[in-house]
Amino acid sequence: xxxxxxxxxxxxxxxxxxxxxxxxxxxxxxxxxxxxxxxxxxxxxxxxxxxxxxxxxxxxxxxxxxxxxxxxxxxxxxxxxxxxxxxxxxxxxxxxxxxxxxxxxxxxxxxxxxxxxxxxxxxxxxxxxxxxxxxxxxxxxxxxxxxxxxxxxxxxxxxxxxxxxxxxxxxxxxxxxxxxxxxxxxxxxxxxxxxx
Amino acid sequence: xxxxxxxxxxxxxxxxxxxxxxxxxxxxxxxxxxxxxxxxxxxxxxxxxxxxxxxxxxxxxxxxxxxxxxxxxxxxxxxxxxxxxxxxxxxxxxxxxxxxxxxxxxxxxxxxxxxxxxxxxxxxxxxxxxxxxxxx
Lengths: 196, 136
Hints:
Chain A: This is YceI-like domain-containing protein. The structure holds two protein chains of two kinds. Chain A is an alpha+beta fold.
């Protein structure tokens, strides 16, 4: 009676270990494919008024996209925004606008609300909604934006365009230039990710 | 009297011209050229570590300054605007110094040691340097 019991225990134990190994292994494999990263994503903004159009590009945005948690984060160095005109770039960085020496970073931390709609293993274009918190000049406000995730050769690209009211984030500027700067600034995100 | 008026008109005209000239200069101010600047010389590891340990202090020392950084090339790629980006190794396994070239440099090999001179725009996951040139 004793001997077979011990064997049973051993078999059960082995099954447990095998199951655990399988679980850990598969979890490890999936986790490997669950995070996407870019260290050189593109984020630009655009301000349009009848008097002047202002555009700037930043090609050093960091973004992490995690499928398991559906979280998506973006970070930019404010001084990495480049303008066609040097004087505009200098103004942008002063305390009247972005105060980039005091607040060198801006960022977004949120979630893809409908991540189930994206098949990361199949090439295609998927409409998504992203919601979260946008921080500029240390002011954090909730933001929701519609965007697209494009899967090409297994690599995702995230694109979105949304507007922010600059005064919500204390981006005021001198009084004499107010007519040249739009109240609502259009922000465009275009990030090509690598598998992390 | 007439003579006095002429001088006045000349002064007014001269100030208007100076004003226009100054506005023109501001509007067309040339872009910052790191090649003409004196730079802080540092290794990629030391630069990364300063930010990783005390970001505020590192911002005070390096932000918006010309930096001449020397390090081992981890990877080279083109960013989405087609500019060349070189990632320099640091004490971190993934991140380091992210260097964007103003003009495409001559061939750079992975694993080689380079010296890059650029402007520090901040610290995200990497320390960011851009508008840069290859020193050696």
